[in-house]
């Protein structure tokens, strides 16, 4: 009989139900705000951080600073690759009409909303890239490996070296300084990148060219 089955359906406690309703309400309000503000799909936070994927977005100021740096480093008509650095990509796209082109290489398929500029990327397969992504075809590569491990850095470094004509801007933990020098020949900058949420690990930028970050 159908009625007997109702007893088996798990019931949410009133507390959990209230919390859930509050969460959905907040989400609706956020979506409503996005619509009413003439929502910019490229603004930082338009795609929310997924900590399970070790995602931490830069603060607006840091993303702007890094975006401006790579535009200058790439030069007029330059090509820029953002490897696991979506908040810099988003900031670059806000500068619509500037004379450069940019690609985003990212594991998180939510970024496929950015169309042809999105390239699915898994650092475990560093050279598993589309055929049309030619070697040494980017004037600068900015990369932010998702994990603070030598294995992750070493594999991401393979991708970076494949893509770049020479210039590299690496963002990773201060504890990775030796490995960054070893695998990419980059040196630490004075500029201290900040995230929209404070991270436990000290974060730094590293370059292999004369940059504006010192």
TrEMBL record:
This protein's record includes keyword ATP-binding: no
InterPro entries registered for this protein in UniProt: DNA_methylase_N6_adenine_CS (IPR002052), Efm5/EEF1AKMT1 (IPR019369), Mlase_EEF1AKMT1/ZCCHC4 (IPR041370), SAM-dependent_MTases_sf (IPR029063)
UniProt keyword annotations, A-Z: Cytoplasm, Methyltransferase, Transferase
Lineage top rank: taxon: Eukaryota
TM region positions: none
One term of GO molecular function: protein-lysine N-methyltransferase activity
Protein name according to UniProt: EEF1A lysine methyltransferase 1
Organism: Eudyptes chrysocome (Western rockhopper penguin)
């Amino acid at each position: 009989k159908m009625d007997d089955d109702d007893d088996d359906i798990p019931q949410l406690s009133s507390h959990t139900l209230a919390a859930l309703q509050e969460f959905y309400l907040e989400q609706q309000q956020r979506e409503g705000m996005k619509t009413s503000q003439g929502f910019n799909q490229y603004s930082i936070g338009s795609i929310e951080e997924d900590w399970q994927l070790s995602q931490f977005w830069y603060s607006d100021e840091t993303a702007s600073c890094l975006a401006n740096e790579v535009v200058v480093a790439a030069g007029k008509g330059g090509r820029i690759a953002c490897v696991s650095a979506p908040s810099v990509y988003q900031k670059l796209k806000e500068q619509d009409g500037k004379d450069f082109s940019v690609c985003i290489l990212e594991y998180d398929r939510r970024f496929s909303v950015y169309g042809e500029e999105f390239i699915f990327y898994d650092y475990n397969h560093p050279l598993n890239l589309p055929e049309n992504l030619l070697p040494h075809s980017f004037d600068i590569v900015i990369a932010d490996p998702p994990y603070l491990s030598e294995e992750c850095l070493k594999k991401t470094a393979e991708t970076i070296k494949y893509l770049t004509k020479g210039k590299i801007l690496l963002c990773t933990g201060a504890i990775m300084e030796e490995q960054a020098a070893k695998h990419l020949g980059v040196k630490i900058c004075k500029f201290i990148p900040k995230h929209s949420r404070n991270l436990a690990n000290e974060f730094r930028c590293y370059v292999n060219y004369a940059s504006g970050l010192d």
